[in-house]
Specification:
By secondary structure, the chain is mostly beta strands. The chain is built from one helix and ten strands. The chain has one domain. Strand 8 and strand 9 form a beta hairpin. The model is unreliable at about 90-125 (pLDDT under 50).
Length: about 130
Amino acid sequence: MAEVVREPDGSVTEYTEVAVHGDTVQRLMAEVFGEHWAAISAGPIVDGAAYEIRFTAAPTLSMLDGYLTIDTGPWHFHLCVNDHRAPPRPSWRGCAASPARPSSAPTAAPACPARGGCGSGTAAASR
């Protein structure tokens, strides 16, 4: 069932619950970034910063061990969208691009197949 919210500025947002089991999130994110890239902006919101990234061309999408890589060419980022099975590789520990995680957060490291490892400009999200 959808929930419709009318914002003070007059805009309307419709929220619909989506099941997150299986490959549902993977398929949804692949569709969003693969087919609707020109109409979206993406980015993390953390205390003290919010990044709003607009795409100028269709990104290349790839999957590795539960992570969807959205690659624009000059930069890329990873989203954990399915089960992550492999343990973190030792070469990723201390990767300057890996965000600091509190001890209670998941310890899975992002996969960087397009670049052969994490490098500058890499952002990662875990579920």
